[in-house]
Specification:
This protein is mainly β. It has no helices and eleven strands. The strands form two sheets. Strands 2, 4, 5, 6, 9, 10 and 11 form a seven-stranded mixed beta sheet that branches.
């Protein structure tokens, strides 16, 4: 099994920055890529960004391109999401997830392991 723990959420104002972290433990060698998703109240889980552990290939949702950056520290089994120029519409619970498929994907159903989430609130 793989355990994922997110941290770094909080309450910020529009235009501010936050960096989320996701620490993986357990059988991390099984995973090949990690992603960030978010879920706002009353909405479905939305893809944000993903990164492949091995080749560092990344993929972003159009809504965050140019503002968010996903990165990884492989020796620490940690993935980061740097969020700049935050907007009120970025308010959501942010989840990290991992899968074993060897691809970068935005499909929520392909992610097998999930963290508990961290709240990000952006005030206007």
């Amino acid at each position: 099994q793989v355990q994922l723990v997110e941290s770094g959420g909080g309450l910020v104002q529009a235009g501010d920055s936050l960096r989320l972290s996701c620490a993986a433990s357990g059988r991390t060698f099984m995973t090949t890529a990690m992603g960030w998703f978010r879920q706002a109240p009353g909405k479905g889980r939305e893809f944000v960004a993903a990164i492949n552990w091995r080749d560092m290939n990344t993929h972003y949702a159009d809504s965050v391109k140019g503002r968010f950056t996903i990165s990884s520290d492989n020796p620490k089994n940690t993935v980061y999401l740097q969020m700049n120029s935050l907007k009120p519409e970025d308010t959501a619970v942010y989840y990290c997830a991992a899968h074993t498929l060897g691809i970068v994907t935005d499909r929520v159903e392909r992610y097998r392991y999930w963290g508990q989430g961290t709240q990000v609130t952006v005030s206007s």
